[in-house]
């Protein structure tokens, strides 16, 4: 949305339906599960408006979670009807803005693995076996610590890296050392070839210098959703 989205507050309801932008089959292109065939559920709305955000998550529809599950089942299957996409990635926007707990429970009960991608500012109680990848945002005065209830659950932290934006030139201390959480560095996509090349080089240097893991947006390299 490149920061042009409305800032939407958290929703309090029973979670029986969710605001969904789209549901689609793809490969997970980033982070610890890169390359795994997946079904993505992109939820609508976000509580932040980041000017580098490359996702579209507005113009969403309210869909019952039973219908969401039905779509996930269909999209998990190959052209022979065999379920081969067992990873469901819930992203946004900001997934924890909505009550995703019932949907997560439903997906787990139907044999899917679940990963949530979050900006780290909100949290709801979810099942322990769910993976949470946190991509923290810099407020302009630095990174703030991730809230404790979320930090204890995070599986990986993905820092966006930019060589031209002072806020994103390095990795921040958001509490990751408390739980020895793996840190990924991912070049920011600034829709500018020269800037993007510099971002990749800086992310590579940070990974080599500090032992971080390099994350590239392979979905863009492959030109898939």
Rounded Rg:
17 Å
Dominant shape? globular
> What is the helix/strand order?
EEEHEHEEHEEHEH
DSSP strand content: 15-25%
Biggest sheet strand line-up: 3-1-2-4-5-6-7-8-9
Q: Assign the CATH architecture.
A: Alpha-Beta Barrel
Overall pLDDT level = 96
The CATH class is identified as Alpha Beta
Question: At the fourth CATH level, what is the homologous superfamily?
Answer: Aldolase class I
Indicate the percent of residues in helices: 10-25%
CATH topology: TIM Barrel
The unreliable regions are: none
Class of secondary structure makeup: alpha/beta
Q: Report how far apart the termini are.
A: 15 Å
Question: Which features does this protein show?
Answer:
225 residues; alpha/beta; TIM Barrel
List strands and helices in order, with pairings.
Blueprint: E1 17-27, E2 37-43, E3 61-64, H1 65-75, E4 87-91, H2 101-109, E5 113-118, E6 131-134, H3 148-151, E7 156-161, E8 183-187, H4 193-210, E9 213-214, H5 218-222
Helix pairs in contact: 1-2
Q: Care to describe what's here?
A:
With 225 residues, the chain is α/β, with parallel strands linked by helices. It has a single domain (17-222), classed as Aldolase class I (TIM Barrel, Alpha-Beta Barrel), CATH 3.20.20. Helix content is 21%, strand content 22%. It has helices at residues 65-75, 101-109, 148-151, 193-210, 218-222, and strands at 17-27, 37-43, 61-64, 87-91, 113-118, 131-134, 156-161, 183-187, 213-214. It has a nine-stranded mixed β-sheet. Strand 4, helix 2 (101-109) and strand 5 form a beta-alpha-beta unit. The two termini are 15 Å apart. 35% of the residues are buried. The mean pLDDT is 96.
């Amino acid at each position: 949305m490149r920061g042009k989205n409305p800032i939407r507050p958290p929703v309090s309801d029973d979670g029986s339906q969710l605001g969904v932008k789209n549901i689609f089959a793809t490969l997970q292109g980033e982070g610890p599960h890169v390359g795994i065939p997946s079904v993505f559920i992109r939820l609508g709305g976000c509580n932040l408006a980041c000017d580098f955000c490359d996702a579209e998550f507005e113009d969403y529809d309210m869909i019952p979670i039973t219908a969401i599950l039905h779509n996930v089942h269909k999209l998990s299957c190959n052209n022979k009807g065999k379920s081969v996409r067992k990873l469901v990635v819930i992203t946004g926007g900001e997934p924890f803005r909505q009550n995703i707990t019932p949907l997560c429970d439903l997906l787990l009960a139907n044999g899917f693995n679940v990963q949530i991608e979050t900006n780290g500012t909100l949290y709801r109680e979810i099942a322990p076996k769910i993976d949470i990848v946190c991509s923290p945002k810099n407020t302009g005065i630095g990174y703030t610590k991730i809230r404790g209830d979320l930090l204890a659950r995070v599986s990986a932290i993905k820092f966006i890296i930019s060589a031209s934006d002072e806020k994103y030139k390095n990795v921040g201390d958001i509490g990751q050392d408390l739980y020895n959480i793996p840190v990924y560095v991912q070049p920011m996509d600034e829709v500018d070839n020269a800037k993007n090349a510099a971002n990749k080089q800086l992310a590579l240097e940070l990974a080599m210098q500090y032992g971080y893991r390099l994350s590239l947006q392979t979905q863009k390299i492959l030109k898939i959703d």
